[in-house]
Design a protein that fits this description.
CATH topology of the largest domain: Rossmann fold
Strand order of the largest sheet: 2-1-3-4-5
CATH superfamily of the largest domain: Glucose-6-phosphate isomerase like protein, domain 1
Strand content: 5-15%
Number of strands: 9
Radius of gyration: 20 Å
Helix content: 40-55%
């Protein structure tokens, strides 16, 4: 990686995720005001960006274990199912995410049990007003997208403490151990990410993962390439992608290959049938476009997913360095997007 990306402060944050996860698991221990297991009929996560990704990962992890439905919402509205027996996570890295704040206010108005995860801002004030459980993201874990590991671990540990996700704290420890191993590799001068980055820089990139864990990691890669590297990227999910987008490269037959790139995210917890789909796609795309495979490791699905996301975070900073851009500059999001917004009124229950 070129010097600008390698020395950027975001690299330290991107590789500090194991410490962020351990910090969150400890921070929520004994959190007062959580509902009892029998009081929870559904779980809803309100989040944008890293908050959305964290909610999607928790849903992927918990889907086969938690006996109630989990929804992840990124809009101004609370779903119709939200009510007095809903456990609602309102997540914002700034506390002033307009969509999250309005949805959280609507959920409170319906009597939902709110848990707030944020650094401060309007959302923290809402938690204070309605005496909701409040997990404060440390101020030093900024920008908001750097707080992903903290947010994921906080949600998992809270769900275990309620009795909905047994074993989650053990998963966090397994994930942290894998991320420490990955960090040691990624901080070497020559590593798989430093070799991959030149093959992605300046190209439109499609990142694809399997249903559940891999797809969440793919969305994170896409977002980090957009925000950090300032270049177009998309993500998709197998096996659905084999039923449509796989043929999108067919017009390359008989002509020069496309100049974009495809990154396939793999791990050891794939459904064997979905693994076969991904293998078929890789073979089918040979000669049509550049295909790269990245494999996550770890002793549980949480570890593998977080490992893939750490690789993607660091890769995006390598690409930013090669593109000659500042990965921390997001003027549209931090300035333009906030023009003309009106926060909800302060809740006084």
């Amino acid at each position: 990686m070129s010097a600008p990306g390698h020395s950027h402060p975001l690299l330290a944050l991107a590789t500090a995720v194991p410490e962020h996860m351990a910090l969150a698991a400890e921070a929520v221990r004994g959190l007062p005001g959580l509902p009892e297991l029998a009081e929870v009929q559904n779980i809803v996560v309100f989040g944008m960006g890293a908050g959305r990704t964290a909610g999607a990962l928790v849903r992927a992890l918990a889907g086969a274990v938690v006996p109630v439905p989990i929804l992840v919402e990124s809009s101004y509205r609370a779903p119709a199912c939200v009510g007095a027996r809903s456990l609602v996570f309102a997540i914002s890295g700034s506390g002033d995410t307009d969509e999250v704040n309005h949805a959280a206010a609507a959920a409170i108005a319906r009597g939902a049990r709110l848990v707030v995860v944020t650094v401060g801002g309007w959302l923290a004030a809402l938690a204070e007003d309605c005496n909701a459980p409040f997990v404060r993201i440390p101020a030093e874990i900024q920008p908001a997208r750097a707080a992903l590991g903290f947010i994921v671990a906080a949600q998992c540990a809270i769900l275990e403490d309620i009795g909905l996700l047994p074993g989650a704290r053990a998963w966090i420890e397994i994930a942290a151990a894998q991320l420490r191993r990955r960090r040691a590799e990624l901080l070497q001068a020559d590593n798989p990410v430093s070799r991959l980055a030149p093959l992605l820089a300046g190209r439109p990139v499609l990142i694809q993962g399997d249903d559940a864990f891999g797809a969440v990691a793919a969305e994170r890669w896409k977002a980090q390439l957009n925000q950090n590297a300032k270049q177009p990227a998309w993500f998709s999910e197998q096996p659905n992608a084999s039923h449509n987008e796989a043929v999108g490269w067919d017009c390359a037959i008989g002509r020069a290959p496309w100049t974009d790139a495809v990154v396939l995210l793999r791990h050891d917890f794939e459904d064997a049938r979905v693994s076969r789909r991904i293998d078929q796609l890789a073979d089918y795309l040979a000669g049509k476009t550049a295909v790269h495979t990245v494999r996550g490791a770890g002793g549980c699905p949480l570890a593998a997913a977080m490992d893939l996301m750490m690789i993607g975070d660091v890769a995006s900073l390598h690409v930013a360095g090669l593109n000659g851009v500042d990965p921390s500059a997001i003027a549209f999001i931090s300035e333009t997007l906030k023009d003309g917004l009106t926060p909800p009124g302060r809740w006084k229950g």
